[in-house]
Design a protein that fits this description.
globular, 2 domains, 239 residues, Rossmann fold, Elongation Factor Tu (Ef-tu), domain 3, alpha/beta, 6-stranded antiparallel β-sheet
């Protein structure tokens, strides 16, 4: 049985990730326990339930952990301002106290797939749980063969974690960034992440894939991966 833990945590850092001209306000938050306790271990791709102490408005909401599981001092989150708790968090100040429960969910457990190629596919804030995965993979790089990341964003203004994604080549990790709509400054792929994978197909017989994003994106990527020979048991979701 999975046992969830409850922590009193505070926001210690808030960084806007999207371009200031972008209509979508996406931030990276760092949460640390108020009493400096070490967090319980978690599996990459798991999520937490975040609420405000002593109130039910806005309602507590689930967010994927965007930090590596070996970092036991706090959690990173990638949050898009929409409504309710996500809007509250994306505009909260450092020092804001939160009630955090977790970790929970099945996550992306890649330990049974050592020696295989790894494919990570995510769009928009679906990049959050994948960030946890690639940070873990860096520490276990010698245990896996080729690693591919397919990240998708709406426009150049919607791109997030750009520098971090570019730096992954230093760890022999292949990164493809696709935009649904580009401009004159963009010379990368136009389309969806599954289109980028189709353009450079990977042998699915010796690979495992992790998918994160909205249901239509996950469904489209699943179909593409199946056509490449990925068995359903090697197409992983984190919930």
């Amino acid at each position: 049985m999975q046992i969830n833990h409850t922590y009193s945590m505070q926001i210690t850092a808030c960084q806007r990730l999207t371009n200031p001209d972008c209509e979508d306000h996406i931030v990276k938050l760092t949460l640390n326990p108020v009493n400096n306790e070490h967090l319980k271990p978690f599996i990459t791709g798991q999520f937490i339930r975040v609420g405000i102490p002593n109130t039910s408005a806005p309602a507590p909401t689930y967010f994927a952990i965007a930090s590596a599981p070996f970092t036991r001092e706090g959690y990173d989150l990638v949050v898009k301002s929409a409504s309710g708790m996500s809007q509250y968090l994306s505009h909260a100040q450092a020092g804001t106290i939160l009630e955090v429960e977790g970790p929970m969910g099945k996550g992306f457990d890649l330990r049974p797939y050592k020696g295989m190629n790894v494919v990570l596919m995510g769009a928009g804030t679906g990049i959050a749980p994948l960030r946890s995965v690639w940070q873990w993979l860096i520490n276990h790089r010698e245990e896996y063969k080729d690693i591919y990341i397919y990240a998708g964003f709406l426009t150049p203004l919607h791109r997030v974690l750009t520098d971090e994604l570019q730096a992954l080549q230093e760890h022999d990790i292949h990164v493809s960034v696709s935009l649904a709509s580009g401009d004159q400054s963009w010379d990368g792929p136009i389309g969806f992440v599954q289109d980028a994978l189709k353009a450079n197909p990977i042998d699915g017989l010796h690979a495992v894939a992790c998918l994160a994003g909205m249901s239509p994106m996950v469904d489209a990527c699943t179909e593409t991966l199946q056509n490449l020979g990925f068995d359903d048991t090697r197409i992983l979701l984190n919930f």
